[in-house]
Write a structure and sequence with these properties.
The chain folds into 2 domains: about 1-30, no CATH class; about 60-180, Rieske [2Fe-2S] iron-sulphur domain (Rieske Iron-sulfur Protein), CATH 2.102.10.10. The chain is globular. By secondary structure, it is mainly beta. The protein has 1 helix and 9 strands; from the N terminus they run αβββββββββ.
Amino acid sequence: MAAGSGEDAAQRDGAEGSDGPAPGTGRPSAEDPAFPSRPLPERNLPEASGKHWDFGLSHRYEPPLDIALERPLVAGESVAFVTRLPHPPNGDKADQAFFYRLTDGRVVGYFNRCTHITIPLDYDDGKFLDPQGFIMCRVHGARYELETGLRCTGPATTNLTRILVEEIEDGRSLRITGWEKIR
């Protein structure tokens, strides 16, 4: 076989002990049990060229972001209000945030990324809760407390990233002041 062929590269890039590379990538699949899931190290990188890449523990929006709700948040509702926010924790502009109203009236929000492997928690339908009221990753079943974002069960090893939110204008808007990684 010629050096540098696709098959040769796939063998070279595959992880030892795995079932081989993910199709078409030359890398092991993240779903492969032989491919260990490791959290990325926390890093603080400086801003460069006007872009914000904060991989730290928190971020503050200055000025705060005011977001109009499409409809009022109702306690106990199964569908969350979902939106995009600038400067998400992992720098991926496609990341979404979701918000629920708790039965005590408070509003909570988190970034839509499972901490097991960084994939969305929902199936792009705005439904994050299991029948018991826990936030659940629809792929591997990791569960988090709705009130706190703390990891409860499943393959996730860390907690969700909480959005710092308050209600304004009689519940018609949310004011987002920042986010923080829950330790």
